Amino acid sequence: MPVVRDLRVLLRLPDFRRLLAVRLLSQLSDGVFQVALASYVVFSPEKQTSPAAVASVLGVLLLPYSLLGPFTGVFLDRWRRRQVLLWCNLLRALLSCGTAGLVLLHVPDWLFYLSALSVTAINRFVLAGLSAALPRVVDAPRLVTANSLSPTAGTLAATVGGGAAFVVHLFLSEGAGADAATVLLAAVLYAGAGLSALALGRDLLGPDFQERVPRLATAVASTGRGLLDGLRHLRRRPAARRALAAMTAMRFCYGALTVMLLMLCRYTWSDASDSHHGLALLGLAVGVSAAGFFTAAVVTPWTTGRLGVAGWITCCSAASAVLLPPLALPFRVGPMMAAAFALGVTTQGAKIATDTVVQTHVQDRYRGRVFSLYDVAFNVAFVGAAAVCALLLPPDGRSSAVIIALSLIYAVVAVAMTRVGQPAPDTSDTALHP
């Protein structure tokens, strides 16, 4: 198969393998940390979680990304991306240790959220840096395959990390001790991710500097101008702009379904006092969804070669619109797990196509800023979906109206994308630099 052949070629590239190793360790750590947060905030037997509470937590953890996101791109276009991957992961390791201490001390929720936010906010620099660096280690013809393998492998690593965190909880008694131990495991893995970045050349991942890197104060002062430049550049790239809009709408739907699934696992499918069972069901859903992500990684290069990136996004959104009602409306575990797999395929397939459009239509010196704006749109859409769910979802998560509305959104995206032709890559700036 061409995909298998391309994957073998990619894995023979030493710099791609090293960058992939950083991603895998970073997202493995994210999976561990996120399960620790979910266990402490959502699945603690002593906490009465509601859709509004879940939305509040997501707002605290994700909305600040929207404020920080534009800054990450400006810094990524000025700082050596290898150094960003190194120091951000080491800083996350240190902050995770502090978060574990707060869990043991039973501090007020706002202080715990602030500490957790400090860990997850830094993730914006890491993920945006990984995406912006990928074209520096892979040539343009294999960029679609690289986008299939790298982010999807990272998602699978996060799933494995979540599974490891769940195992830690199984062998430890319920309570703050298990949550703190899980956070400390994430800290160790974050440190490993940071040190693995040292295998990459200091200047390999770019960006290309036309002059010396400015001082931090100068970079902060020019953030507004840099953001405006990134927006103007994106405005001149209609293919990238339309793909980002479609992916943002699909992310909104995925966020709403995530909140619904959390409430179903917490209250409908398990006893509210049994945190292990609810967390196990959530872990199963995440694993099934990750299998869908892996399937998307395999089929997307083949489908985009025949349908084009716009055609594949259209197909993914249309399939989501058709499959969601029959699978989700019964609100039973089996059909909902099938929906998790199907939406894993369609969501990740559309994201791979969108990543490729952005990377091939945005010039390298703007790529960090555009990917940061991409992250901002993702987080605003996810938090917006959580806020809507807080208003519409009952405590047990069962709402036929929400399912139908999300299916209609998927359908609108599909119809809108049918009017977008196959975009031609921008050849004014090469994707790979020596």
Describe the protein's architecture and organization:
- By secondary structure, the chain is mainly α.
- It has a single domain, classed as MFS general substrate transporter like domains (Growth Hormone, Chain: A).
- It has 14 helices and no strands.
- The relative contact order is 0.16.
- The model is unreliable at 427-434 (pLDDT under 50).
How are the secondary structure elements laid out?
Layout: H1 2-12, H2 14-41, H3 51-76, H4 81-105, H5 109-133, H6 143-171, H7 176-196, H8 216-221, H9 223-235, H10 238-268, H11 275-328, H12 333-361, H13 364-392, H14 400-417
Helix pairs in contact: 2-4, 2-5, 2-6, 2-7, 3-5, 3-13, 4-5, 4-7, 5-13, 6-11, 6-12, 9-13, 10-11, 10-12, 10-13, 10-14, 11-12, 11-14
Summarize this structure as a short list of keywords or feature phrases.
434 residues; mainly alpha; Growth Hormone, Chain: A; 14 helices; 0% strand; globular
A few lines on this structure:
This protein is mainly alpha-helical. It has helices at 2-12, 14-41, 51-76, 81-105, 109-133, 143-171, 176-196, 216-221, 223-235, 238-268, 275-328, 333-361, 364-392, 400-417.
Class based on secondary structure composition and strand pairing: mainly alpha
Number of domains: 1
Q: What is the CATH C level class, in words?
A: Mainly Alpha
State the total count of DSSP E strands: 0
